[in-house]
UniProtKB/TrEMBL annotation:
<feature type="domain" description="IGFBP N-terminal">
    <location>
        <begin position="20"/>
        <end position="96"/>
    </location>
</feature>
<dbReference type="InterPro" id="IPR048422">
    <property type="entry name" value="NOA1/YqeH-like_C"/>
</dbReference>
<dbReference type="InterPro" id="IPR009030">
    <property type="entry name" value="Growth_fac_rcpt_cys_sf"/>
</dbReference>
<dbReference type="GO" id="GO:0005576">
    <property type="term" value="C:extracellular region"/>
</dbReference>
<dbReference type="Pfam" id="PF07648">
    <property type="entry name" value="Kazal_2"/>
</dbReference>
<dbReference type="Pfam" id="PF21516">
    <property type="entry name" value="YqeH-like_C"/>
</dbReference>
<protein>
    <submittedName>
        <fullName>Nitric oxide-associated protein 1</fullName>
    </submittedName>
</protein>
<keyword id="KW-1015">Disulfide bond</keyword>
<dbReference type="InterPro" id="IPR000867">
    <property type="entry name" value="IGFBP-like"/>
</dbReference>
<dbReference type="InterPro" id="IPR052807">
    <property type="entry name" value="Mito_transl_resp_regulator"/>
</dbReference>
<dbReference type="InterPro" id="IPR002350">
    <property type="entry name" value="Kazal_dom"/>
</dbReference>
<keyword id="KW-0732">Signal</keyword>
<feature type="compositionally biased region" description="Basic and acidic residues">
    <location>
        <begin position="403"/>
        <end position="416"/>
    </location>
</feature>
<feature type="region of interest" description="Disordered">
    <location>
        <begin position="389"/>
        <end position="416"/>
    </location>
</feature>
<dbReference type="Pfam" id="PF00219">
    <property type="entry name" value="IGFBP"/>
</dbReference>
<feature type="signal peptide">
    <location>
        <begin position="1"/>
        <end position="20"/>
    </location>
</feature>
């Protein structure tokens, strides 16, 4: 009897049309408008009163509002409001994820929300839905080229002690970021196409690449093998040039006046290294074609741009803030050399190491070893990292400053 006394009031409530909130009248599904015949771009949901099914607001559409007129964003979207919009309660739908994703249709979508919109459109047209091909950000790395790619497909395998080789589990796959290395793909404009098998072995790194940094004055030239030449034509002060390439490719610094003679005499020989084979080899190697670039320095702690040397690597240029540089880059026309901004490793100068006296070069070995050990601005003594003491500076300061590097640049030696 007590059970029936408790149940009867609830049964009475179920028979009453309820109002979900302020401004909402009694819910009558028969009065709800029909959804579009072509379907909703980002799916449907109940309105703010919880009564009728309506199309959710898509990316870039208005959202929010007051009471019954409020409009909600679709799945994966959020209603972003400015300070002014907060007063009117109105905003714009924006995707919660702001990185590109790959679809199973082979298309790179700007965001996951854009992929979902395309998938719903395909389903409404009777086609197969589109899913994210690989969770996480998908990149293709080939030499100096780094770009988002939907064309590379594969399932990584793990090999660890006690586990053997197996595919990633669903939990591991969910949180994974995918990196594809495609050394077998030949691009149309690639320096490797112009090299012999032995030369390719020298150009393609076989171990970790240690950046080699040089300080150059205006009116000097830098050779990366005999494959590339960079002329520093104009600039207010000396600049740093960090070569990120295989250590088996020689780097040679000379003056602009001597550069032509150096190339003519040593291309194909041991000084420049690649290509190698004397005059006979250089007859088959295409001539170097010049192209000019203009850069603006971003300070002594950040590279202004990268000069991409196709699959041979790149050269990062670090210059004083606001300094206007003019560079002339020589390379085979078929190699596809170009300028990359922003640079791939903007703070590569931090690994430059100590300046070698009376030369334009630095010794990155100590700095590189310390960086791998998790130390900064240190001297490596076996397995111990200790702080370097500087005159007229507090001994507890452990980071190089722009002032220290400016001193190095001001005392740049005469080039050979």
């Amino acid at each position: 009897m007590k059970f029936l006394t408790v149940l009867v009031p609830f049964l009475w409530l179920l028979s009453v049309r309820v109002s979900a909130g302020p401004g909402c009248g009694p819910c009558d599904p028969a009065q709800c408008a029909s959804l579009p015949a072509e379907g909703c771009p980002v799916g449907s949901m109940l309105d703010s009163c919880g009564c009728c099914s309506v199309c959710a607001a898509a990316e870039g559409e208005m959202c929010g509002g007051r009471r019954a007129a409020a409009r909600r964003c679709g799945s994966g979207l959020e209603c972003v409001k400015s300070d002014e919009d907060k007063k009117s309660k109105v905003g714009v739908c924006a995707c919660k994820s702001n990185y590109e994703v790959c679809g199973t249709d082979g298309v790179t979508y700007r965001t996951g929300c854009a992929l979902k919109t395309a998938s719903l459109t395909a389903e409404n047209q009777g086609k197969e839905p589109i899913h994210v091909q690989n969770k996480g950000e998908v990149y293709n790395v080939s030499g100096s080229q780094v770009y988002l790619s939907c064309e590379a497909v594969g399932v990584p395998h793990l090999s660890s002690p006690g586990r053997g080789s197996s595919e990633l589990t669903l939990n591991e796959l969910k949180d994974a970021h995918w990196l594809y290395d495609t050394p077998g793909i030949m691009k149309e404009r690639d320096i490797l196409n112009l090299l012999t098998e032995q030369e390719v072995m020298s150009v393609v790194p076989s171990q970790a690449v240690v950046p080699r940094t040089f300080v150059l004055k205006p009116g000097s030239s830098l050779f990366v093998g005999a494959m590339a030449r960079i002329d520093f034509l104009q600039g207010g002060k000396s600049c740093w040039f960090s070569v990120v390439a295989s250590g088996r490719v020689p780097v040679h610094i000379t003056s602009l006046e001597k550069a032509d003679a150096i190339y003519e005499k040593h291309a194909g020989h041991i000084l420049l290294g690649v290509p190698l084979g004397g005059l006979e080899r250089m007859k088959d190697f295409p001539p170097l074609v010049p192209q000019e670039y203009r850069l603006e320095g971003r300070g002594y702690l950040e590279a202004a741009a990268d000069i991409k040397l196709s699959s041979a690597g790149w050269v990062a240029v670090t210059a004083p803030d606001g300094d206007q540089l003019v560079l002339r880059v020589h390379g085979p026309e078929a190699a596809g050399f170009s300028l990359r901004t922003p640079p791939l490793l903007p703070h590569v100068i931090a690994l430059k190491g100590e300046r070698i006296r009376k030369t334009a070069a630095t010794n990155p070995s100590n700095r590189w070893a310390c960086w791998q050990a998790g130390c900064r601005t240190v001297v490596q003594r076996g397995c111990t990292c200790r702080r370097r003491r500087r005159r007229r500076r507090r001994s507890d300061e452990t980071s190089d400053t722009a002032e220290d590097w400016r001193t190095d640049l001001d005392h740049s030696p005469d080039l050979m």
